[in-house]
Every structure is written in C-alpha cells, then in structure tokens.
Specification:
two-stranded antiparallel ribbon, 46% helix, 180 residues, 4 strands, 9% strand, Abi_system_AbiD/AbiF-like
C-alpha cells in the first residue's frame, strides 16, 4: 500500500488539472460550480465513465487494466454534472420506493396482528420460535435477548421519544400501552 499524499486543490485548481488531462472544462470561471452547488466532483468520480485505459498483454484478471491520468477525447465537465444529477434522481427514486415498501409492510403487519389482538405484537405466541427464542452470543456464550424482545425494546424507545400527536393521545387517555 502507498500512503495518500495528494494535496488539497481549490475548485479552480481542480478544473485546471482536469483540463491539463484532456477534459473540456468549457468556461473555466464557472466549470467548478461552487461550494453552494456541490462544487466540482472529485476527479476520481468524473473519471469513472470516461478514462483512457490501457490493457496489459501480460496480465489477466484484477490489475490487468491500468487507468491512465488522461481522459478520452470529448470528455467534458458536463458529463460529471450529468452523472451527479442522474445519481441524485436515482437515489431519490430508490428511497421513495423503499419508503413505500416499508409503509406497506408495516400496514400489513399491523393489520394481520391486529386481527388476533390489539396487543398481539407483545405476544410471542403470535410469532415463529426463530423470532422469539433467545439466542447465545457466539463469542462469549452469554445469552442474548430474542429478536422479538429487541424489536419490542426499539418500539418502546421510539414511543417514549415520540412527539407525534396520536402517541400523546395514548399516553394521556390510556395506560401508555400502544396497540399494534
């Protein structure tokens, strides 16, 4: 391994370095964007889709290709900005999808358990033994709480910290025990 010794570069210096390696920086006064717009992304990230690569004739597998310190002809800083925008939009779509799945799973869990009892989530008999059986720490051999016990503990911690109106309603009107 080699120690990392590259110096910090200002946005303008980064633009100049990329330009010296064959990247079309366009209007250099505006190429770096600026801190408020996220600035210029690191040259490593810019280089991912457009570096010049030399294949080794002697080696195969990992390390058979060498990324050169110059870029393919026609590479522009706008390519990096497009990648950043695409990455941001993709991340937002993925997170939106994950959130929808999470809400659907929670709703189904509450619906299915609620048919049994308003407090079915507290009853280990409503779950598989794999979820409710205590375990053993593989390193120390000490007993560890079941996944169900940990789940209930997290739910209690979240309820205790919650400032949601419906949680406050249950604290005031009922015995602070939340139904599923």
């Amino acid at each position: 391994m080699v120690e990392y010794t590259k110096p910090w570069l200002s946005l303008q210096q980064q633009v100049e370095r990329l330009a010296s390696r064959g990247v079309d920086a366009g209007d250099r006064d505006h190429a770096g964007g600026g801190p408020q717009s996220g600035g210029l992304l690191p040259a490593r990230r810019l280089s991912a889709p457009v570096p010049r690569i030399r294949a080794s004739r002697r080696r195969r597998g990992p390390g058979a290709h060498r990324v050169l310190a110059c870029y393919r002809a026609g590479t522009r800083i706008e390519h990096a900005k497009d990648i950043i925008d695409f990455d941001r939009r993709l991340r937002m779509l993925v997170m939106d999808g994950v959130e929808r799945i999470e809400v659907a799973v929670r709703m189904q869990l509450g619906y299915m358990l609620g048919r049994t009892s308003p407090f079915a989530h507290e009853d280990p008999a409503c779950f598989t033994e794999a979820f409710t059986a205590p375990g053993t720490d593989p390193d120390s051999g000490e007993p560890v709480p079941s996944s169900h016990a940990k789940w209930l503990e997290r739910a209690d911690e979240r309820r205790a910290k919650s400032d949601e109106q419906f949680v406050a309603h249950f604290r005031e009107k009922y015995d602070d025990r939340m139904p599923v």
